[in-house]
Design brief:
Blueprint: E1 4-9, H1 25-34, E2 39-45, H2 68-78, E3 85-88, H3 93-96, H4 131-145, E4 151-154, H5 164-172, H6 180-205, E5 211-214, H7 223-226, E6 232-235, H8 243-254, E7 261-266, H9 281-293, E8 297-303, H10 312-328, E9 336-337, E10 341-344, H11 360-371, E11 376-379, E12 390-393, H12 401-412, E13 416-420, E14 438-443, E15 449-453, E16 465-467, E17 472-476, E18 481-489, E19 506-518, E20 521-524, H13 528-534, H14 538-552, E21 558-560, E22 566-573, E23 578-585, E24 589-591, E25 595-597, E26 604-612, E27 619-623, E28 627-628, E29 631-634, E30 637-645, E31 648-654
Parallel strand pairs: 1-2, 1-8, 2-3, 3-4, 4-5, 6-7, 7-8, 10-11, 10-12, 12-13, 13-20
Antiparallel strand pairs: 9-22, 14-17, 15-16, 15-18, 18-19, 19-20, 21-26, 22-23, 23-31, 24-25, 26-30, 27-28, 27-31, 29-30
Helix pairs in contact: 1-2, 1-10, 4-6, 5-6, 8-11, 9-10, 11-13, 13-14
């Protein structure tokens, strides 16, 4: 995979004339050079259902007069740029109006994406219909006729569908279409059949040809869905609905899976389909740096104007980021992440896709880990946990027999657990399966309530702090050490019992154990990660970081004085016997009602870093500058100070 990709959208109505009429090979090539692009995803078929090449199996856009797909591939290959080919698989508006019976339907018969045909928008197909055969013919034609460098198949995944084909399939098996649990196996098999048929077809023509099936999110815990791909492209436009939480969460899950992967952002101020919208150059500098700091290659989304002329402002913008990436690539190839802590994603246990793409508990956990400068991976139940020192169970990880056995093996190997909320309980929510030094009683009937730690928080004097999330009542056992108390309010707020503007104050005479440490780790009796994602209280973060520091002890791989909004990762390059420390710093700000943007990047000076390295260091230097950096190595630690951090800085430790 190349490091500097552009994902070029082209979804163009039949009502627009002159399609591709201003396409010019030299202008196309000049823009790729201006953007420092080494791979560009070009389009064979768009969401409107039109081909952008001569076709015998579906219809070419009525206003296209030449082979645009072939021309783009030829132009790009001539200057050494790769060309994966895009096919809109799930959407085909041309065909949707001819065969509405092939569309995906909700229980109420509404279509998806647009709920009907009287509103503007696309309509998604069900692959458990004859549409799949149409799609496979399109894929075969493009694969046979064009010398592309892979396939990007868009708008696919396991989909809930109540079309008459899916209903008939379930009824033929003796199932009840009104029962979602009996429908779900059909939806799963539909996607599996699609992916298998695509792989068999494409690889019979071009063995080993790269294929990626894009659903807009790589679901954690569904390795069966991951490994239908030859590589991963993590669609994650921070301003397009994914937010700045999504990519670190997805990347820290993707890298340990072993597939090459890239992080896909966009040049847009908002999201796909925005003509004339631009990010600030500093945003793309940061977002591409975040990709390579997490072991990923980069992809930036653009959308070509219907006339086929590439926009110079767009490629000047992309080039500012990609020239920096190009200079850094040598230190970003074939890396593995160094992590002390593993987060067992709550999405792993969800019965169906989480619509928010992150989930509050996972998002809150990742924010705390990033802000606390804790090196981490995101894992599922199939991951090898043996290399981690602490495993985090966020908010609602119930423990069945299989998971209990794996957790006990992790503990036997010297690992520790941090559990919060209902995590650690049996599936019925009756009792803890592991020893956190507490016995479970019941969900706390008071919400919100309060936490009074037995330790001092880093930023605040001792007090009693409000926790807004659902809490659980526990009592200390003989194996436990109490780390903090729950303090109840006088009463819950309602129409006939309220005090002041928000919630009832605490009653200092009503308290019980709220945080404890036992032989297997530390337990915090609230959904603190969900709470942090929604409320962001400093007391939540510092409580969790105290617990992690206590569990990790002196074994943390890295410490630094980088501020909270900074990001640090450590990537190892085994082939070069070196560690690469990535430091990043930028602060998103809210613009408009819901868009987070990065504009100003304020340099930081004299950033101190301590890294545990057992072997003697041969050299420590800044990359890509290759400027030697003074360092001290003592007692298994290397200490150095980065004189200036401007968005992103790599520090290389050669062993």
């Amino acid at each position: 995979m190349r490091f500097r990709q552009v994902h070029l959208d082209f979804h163009t109505s039949e009502l627009i004339p002159g399609i591709g009429s201003r396409f010019d090979k030299k202008q196309f090539q000049d823009m790729l050079k201006l953007g420092c692009v080494d791979s560009i995803t070009v389009f064979a078929k768009c969401h409107h259902g039109w081909a952008y090449h001569p076709s015998t199996v579906y219809e070419t856009h009525p206003h296209l007069k030449f082979d645009l797909l072939g021309a783009m591939i030829e132009a790009a290959h001539e200057i050494g740029v790769k060309t994966p080919i895009y096919i809109s698989a799930g959407l085909d508006e041309r065909l949707a109006r001819r065969h509405p019976e092939w569309l995906r339907r909700g229980r109420d018969e509404r279509t998806s994406w647009a709920p009907n045909f009287m509103e503007p928008g696309y309509h998604e197909f069900c692959f458990n219909t004859p549409y799949l055969d149409e799609l496979l013919r399109q894929i075969e034609e493009v694969t046979r006729n064009y010398d592309g460098d892979g396939l990007f198949l868009d708008i696919v995944g396991v989909r809930e569908c109540y079309c008459q084909h899916c209903v008939a399939s379930v009824r033929a098996e003796g199932g009840d279409p009104r029962n979602e649990d009996e429908m779900r196996p059909i939806w799963e098999r539909t996607y599996t059949r699609y992916a298998e048929q695509v792989r068999e077809l494409v690889h019979s023509i071009r063995p080993g040809y790269p294929i990626f099936h894009n659903s807009g999110h790589v679901r954690r815990g569904r390795r069966d869905l991951v490994f239908v791909n030859t590589h991963l492209e993590l669609e994650s436009l921070p301003t397009g609905g994914w937010g700045y939480d999504h990519f670190p969460l997805s990347a820290r899950y993707a890298q340990p899976l072993g597939l090459h992967f890239l992080g896909m952002t966009g040049k847009f101020h908002t999201t796909w389909g925005e003509f004339g919208g631009f990010k600030h150059p500093n945003a793309l500098r940061y977002e591409t740096a975040l990709s390579i700091a997490n072991g990923a290659r980069c992809s930036i989304g653009d959308q070509l104007h219907p006339l086929g002329e590439m926009d110079p402002a767009t490629y000047a913008l992309i080039g500012e980021a990609y020239r920096e990436v190009k200079a850094k690539e040598a230190w970003c190839v074939d890396t593995r992440n160094v992590a002390d802590v593993a987060l067992l994603s709550l999405e792993v246990f969800a019965k169906k896709e989480i619509k928010e793409k992150t989930g509050a508990s996972d998002a809150g956990a990742v924010r705390i880990l990033l802000e606390g400068k804790v090196l981490f991976d995101v894992v599922d139940t199939e991951s090898d946990w043996s290399g981690y020192k602490v495993l985090v169970l966020p908010d609602d990880v119930r423990i069945d027999d299989a998971l209990c056995g794996k957790l006990k093996a992790f503990l036997a190997g010297g690992g520790k657990l941090l559990a919060t909320g209902c995590s650690g309980l049996d599936p019925e929510g009756k009792a803890f399966r592991l020893d956190f030094g507490v016995r479970y009683i019941e969900p706390n009937p008071y919400k919100p309530d309060y936490f009074r730690p037995n330790f001092r928080l880093k930023s605040l004097a001792p007090s009693t702090y409000v926790f807004y999330s659902q809490g659980q009542r526990v009592e200390l056992t003989v194996s436990g050490t109490e780390l903090g108390r729950r303090v109840q309010p006088y009463f819950n707020r309602d129409a006939f019992a309220f005090s002041s503007h928000q919630h009832t104050p605490y009653d200092p005479e009503k308290s019980e154990t709220g945080m404890a440490e036992g032989p297997n780790g530390i337990y915090i009796a609230w959904n603190v990660f969900e709470d942090y994602a929604t409320m962001g209280s400093i007391t939540l973060k510092e409580t969790v970081l105290y617990a992690l520091d206590r569990l990790l002890g002196e074994s943390r791989t890295l410490t630094t004085n980088l501020p909270a909004q900074g990001v640090v990762t450590v990537q190892e390059q085994p082939a070069h016997s070196r560690l690469v420390v990535h430091l990043l710093y930028a602060t998103p700000v809210r613009r408009g009602t819901k868009t987070e943007v990065i504009e100003d990047i304020v340099p930081l000076y004299d950033v101190d870093v301590f890294v545990s390295v057992a072997e003697p260091a041969k050299r420590v230097y800044l990359a890509p500058q290759e400027t030697d950096l003074p360092y001290e190595q003592k007692d298994g630690q290397i200490r150095f100070t980065v004189p200036k951090l401007d968005c992103h800085q790599m520090i290389v430790i050669e062993r």
